Amino acid sequence: MKKTSLVLCLLLVLMTVLSACGGDSGTSSTGTTSGATSTQASSEDTTRPITLGISWWGGSTRHDYTNKILDLYKSKNTNVTINAEYVSWDDYWSSMNTKAASNTLPSVMQQDYAKIGQFIDNGTIVDMTAQVENKNLDLSDIKGDAFYGGKIDGKLYGISTGVNAFCYLYDATALKDAGVTAPSEKFTWDEFDTISKEMMSKANLPTVPLISTDPKFFVEMYVRNQGKHMYSEDGKTFGFDKALLQEAFQVQEDLSKSGNALSPDIVYAANQDNDLLAQKKTWGEPLWSNQVINVMKLANDETRDFQLTMMPGTDNGGIYLKPSMLWSITRDCPEADRNAAARLISFILNDIEANKLAGADRGVTIMKKVNEALVAEADANNKKVYDYIDVVGKYATEIDPPEPVAGSEITKEIKDQFDAIVYGKKTAQQAADDCWNNSEQIFANNAG
Hints:
Blueprint: H1 4-23, E1 29-35, E2 50-57, H2 60-76, E3 80-87, H3 89-101, E4 108-111, H4 113-121, H5 129-133, E5 149-152, E6 155-160, E7 163-164, E8 166-171, H6 172-178, H7 189-203, H8 216-224, E9 229-231, E10 238-239, H9 242-256, H10 264-269, E11 284-288, H11 292-299, E12 306-309, E13 322-323, E14 326-329, H12 338-350, H13 352-358, H14 368-377, H15 380-395, H16 407-422, H17 428-445
Parallel strand pairs: 2-3, 2-4
Antiparallel strand pairs: 1-3, 4-14, 5-6, 6-14, 7-13, 8-11, 8-12, 9-10
Helix pairs in contact: 1-15, 2-13, 6-7, 8-9, 9-17, 16-17
């Protein structure tokens, strides 16, 4: 699959979002609600019964407001029934792969930038260009033809829900109370080590592992900061050498052996609705910027000042901006219902009241008028997210292309080895050797 055009398109949309921001003021659930058609709907589509499915991943906060958005859609129209399915990140992709195999994917699915290439290659999501041309999918508020995020080789497979970046969210109140200096804008590894040590000794607050949910992102940012890339240009091998992988793993081994790390059993028992920082079990944690609002809501404590800074050691090209998520129409959506599916996506993207419900949880919106409305009315917490995206824009470099075919297996391999380090079962060198050898076999198996 050709990926260059996707990266170039994304670069333009990120520049537009930053300009708009700066220049103007795991449990599976299902639900059914009714939804709307837009003003572009044909007379038949506004009267005939239509049933659409929609799926997404996330925590309870996202589930709650997304269902409210669907209720808002229902209040404006009456003939569309929507079957909603929402699960945790861990369960989402196995569920979607199972549905893809049985041809039962929902009409609309939430996509991830790292995964979308695989769904394009196996034909499970469809080109939405016709939906833009017939105005069922309204992208008129995005500047220019290139600002789609999921447009590849002239075909539109996904629409970005917004822009986000990795961050380190920390409890500034806890640091201040302990007399510990907060991270700088260019958060360094030396600062990280000092804060970890002092917060443990002065406040008995340990440090969590480096992106334990998906350590591939830690490895990716680490090697990018050394001028390398996660994968080679053809996607058939890593874009860095084994020594750099061991170096990245060594950072986690050093933390695990420092006496400042949180117990692995506690770490791996947590989830989006059982957050460690919200529960004051740590002083900070790495996560995507669109996830911080959920943490703040779970904490439910206005006396705690949560702040965002960049991941340690990412100011030299490690950090990047990415589509938070994307919406796609699947091949299992009947042809007759694809106009309606496009209108549902269009409503989610363009309706200001719907976006007020979502805030920045799905990223900083790429729609100019919606962005202006949200920034103007943003509460203190959402404003922190908007401001952070502006900061990242000063340091971010071009995002890598979506993952190659071997990406999912490589991601699992890295996590397996990373977890072994966290639990003290392997050294960084052992984990790097095993990860490298196993990954070479994975790349070879997917070379065809």
